[in-house]
Structures are given as C-alpha cells and as structure tokens.
Amino acid sequence: MTRHRTILMLSLLLMLMPSLLLLGIAESLPPVEDRHPFSSYQPAFPGQTRAPGMKTLAPYHVSVLTEDLSQPWAVSVLPDGRLIISEKRGSMRIFSQESGLSSPIYGFLDVAYNGQGGLLDLVPAPDFQTSRQLYFSFARPVKDGSVTALGRVALSADEGSLMNAELLFEALPAVQSSGHFGSRIAFVDNDTLFLSTGDRQHDYTRKYAQDFGSGIGKILRMDRDGNPLFDNPFINDSGAMPQVYSMGHRNVQGLAIHPVSRALYAGEMGPLGGDEINLIMPGRNYGWPVITYGLEYSHAPVGEGLTQMEGMEQPLYYWDPTPAISGMDFYTGNAIPEWQNNLFIGGLAGSHVMRLRIEDGKVTGEERLLADQGQRFRDVAASADGSIYFVTDEGRLYQLRPGQ
Predict the structure, then answer these.
(1) Where in the chain are the domains?
(2) What distances in angstroms separate CA 349 from CA 232, 325, 353, 368, one per listed residue?
C-alpha cells in the first residue's frame, strides 16, 4: 500500500511539474551578469544587485515588425491596440498589424534636436478615445539653451496631422547642454501624471538634482494641464518648485506604474556602473550626486565615494557594469503566467532587454532577452493582449508574443 501511494505521489508531481515551472517555481540560475564590476562597492542588502538568473520556460515568438523607423524614442499602445512611436527629429508614426507603418505625422512644438535632445516620450491621454490628446516630452530650445518640457497635442480625425500643440511645463533652469533630459511620462489616472528629468550632464548642473527649487534631476507630479497637485510633498515649501515629487536623480529614462500596487517605479541611468531601479515615494531624496554605486567615467569616485547616507534612499536594484537602462514597462497580460507583473527594461549599451521579477519589495530574478539581436533597446510597451513591443535606436520595432 505504501509503495502504491509513493508511485501515485511521484506521478502527480510529474504531472504538476510543467505548471510549477511556468509559475517560476524552479531552481535559480547563476546571476546573468558575470563580468567584473567597475567598483568595489558592496550592496546595502542581499539581492540589491546580481539577483539569481532565471529563464522563461513558456514558448514565445519574436518578430521584427518594421525596420523603417527613424531614431525612435518611445512606443505606446493606443486603446485599440495600435502603436504610436515618437521619432527624435519631431515626428510620430502609427503602426498597425493591418496597415503597417504610417508616414511621419507632424505638428509637435519645435524640438532641440541635438545630442540626446529631440522629441522624447509620447503617450496617449487616458481618455484618448474621446479627447484624441497625446502627451509628449521633449528637449525645448530656449534663449539660454534648452529645457526638458511637457507638451500636449491632438491627433486629427483622419490621423494625418497633429493639432493644437501647447506647452504645459518646463523643467527650469535652462542649460547649455544636449544631454540628460530624462524623460518619461506616466499617467496614474485621468488627471494625474508623472514626468522625469535628468541632471543635464554637466558637473556644475549636478547640484540642481539636490535643489528642490529646480526641475533638473527630478520626478515631477502634476495634473494634465501641468499644474502642481495640492498634496505634492513640497507644495507649501518656500522656494520649492511645487511640481517636485522626488529629487536626487541622474537621468531617469524609465517610469512605470505597478499594475497591482499602483506604485511608481523609475529606471535611472548611472555613470560608470550604478544604473538603478527605484521605488519612488513622495518627498524622498534618491541621492545623486551625493551617493551612488557608480564611478566617474575616469574611474574616480563620484564626490566622496559614498553609497549610503541617512535621509537618502537606496535603490531597489542596481547594475555594475551598467546596461544603460532606458524605457520600461510591467507585463500586464496573462498569456505567459511566469511574466505576470514582471518589469521589462530596455538596455542600450547592454543591447538586450532585462526581465526582473519583483517579490515583497526585492528583485528575486533577472533574465536577459533578445541579446542576440545586436540592438540598442530604447523603449518598452506591454499590451493587454499579452504582447510586448520594443523600439531600438537602429530603427526596429519588435514584438514578443506568446508562441506555440
């Protein structure tokens, strides 16, 4: 009888094993990063870097939908499942499976197209189906240089042009620089959005990241007209920019809202080492340039070489060496259960896409995808149908979808 029960239990386990594996209950692999780090800094807690590796077990299919984009920077999903894509020179495209890639569509405000500047993020308003409004971030040319700015425009009914472009917000002060603009847009609801900015890539502009009176090196929270929210953390502080939500950021090129908790996550480019994923909380200081796990490009320490300081937040996760993380999104579909609520991040210098599993406030697994494509992955957009889309600096649009 005992032997019969043992055989029965083993048979049941064998039957369940594929399901358990698809749910991610599998033996951890070595960390995907095996190169020597640039710095000798130690993480503040276990799992803060080089989490165990993991591998997707469910089948999926990779497609290149087009290679005809011109310097794409952002991809977003419209309510009907089509895609909108920004191009840095100041145009957008629409892609559909039925019609392919549209001709360039114009009508944005003038952009400072230079270096890292140009037309940047592009997202539909939550009520796009009725308002036809698109929100865009961009490098705006001004008298004293350029600023990261937020704008709004309406897509015409025939989708051949953009109308009524307007400026909503400027992350002052202006700087003579063509680098580190940020910037991503994330809507929380129909009336609340976040905008990220960078430190503008000068030694002398780094100080602004620690100055709540500037829009540089910040995550900003505002209504859809660019006005500060009444409960913003610095709304009553004299000298503060009232839209400031968090500070101490170097170059945030990724923002994503967790599909369950609705918490805001940010992906921040570090210097030599020190790319970070942060859980963003109101009024918190994320350290740049006072603390960092990265080094200067000369390999010298940044500032005093500190990685921790009281009153400054630790990253949820960091990389050293850096993959140069950019746009990111959470997987919200249920077609591939092991991807549920995982964070997908584009890597530029790393030329791959990262998948992070986050459990109980910690990263518990990391996978590299599309590393064989030789592309700089600039942005990520997850679709409700279970597909994930990526655009690359080289002009490609990729789709990952469940496979047989």
Answers:
(1) 57-402
(2) 35, 8, 11, 13
d(CA 379, CA 69): 13
Q: State pTM to two decimals.
A: 0.93
76 CB-contact burial (10 Å; exposed 0-12 / middle 13-18 / buried 19+): buried
The three-point CA angle 382-384-389 to 5° equals: 30
pLDDT score at 28? 78
Q: What is the mean pLDDT of each run of 10 residues along the chain (404 residues)?
A: 47 44 60 95 96 96 97 98 98 96 98 97 98 98 96 97 98 97 96 98 96 98 98 96 98 97 97 97 98 97 98 98 97 93 97 96 96 97 96 98 86
Q: Active-site residue 180, yes or no?
A: yes
CA distance linking residue 288 with residue 131, whole number of Å: 38
Question: How remote is the C-alpha of 76 from its chain's centroid?
Answer: 12
Q: Is residue 339 a contact partner of residue 56, using CB atoms and an 8 Å limit?
A: yes
Q: What six digits make up the tokens of 221? A: 């929270």
Beta strands in 305-376 (DSSP E): 317-319, 325-330, 343-347, 353-359, 362-369
Taking Cα atoms as reference points, which of 90, 147, 84, 148 lies closest to residue 118? 90
| Rounded Cα gap, residues 77 and 94, in angstroms | 10
Cβ atoms 312, 290 nearer than 8 A: yes
Active-site option among 4, 180, 299, 352: 180
Q: Residue holding tokens 């047989």?
A: 404
Task: Give residue 22's pLDDT.
Answer: 45
User: Which letter does DSSP use for residue 118 in this model?
Assistant: S
Q: Establish whether the linkage from the previous residue to 321 is cis, with ω within 30° of 0.
A: yes
Question: What Cα–Cα distance (Å) separates residue 43 from each residue in 47, 251, 266, 308, 315?
Answer: 8, 21, 19, 10, 10
HSE at residue 118, side-chain half, CA atoms within 13 A, is: 16
Q: What is the 3-state secondary structure (H, E, C) of 193-259?
A: EEEECECCCCHHHHHHHHCCCCCCCEEEEECCCCCECCCCCCCCCCCCCCCEEEECCCEEEEEEECC
The answer to whether 62 and 400 have CB atoms below 8 angstroms apart is yes
Q: In which residue are the tokens 């209950």 written?
A: 25
Domain 57-402 falls in which CATH fold? Neuraminidase (2.120.10)
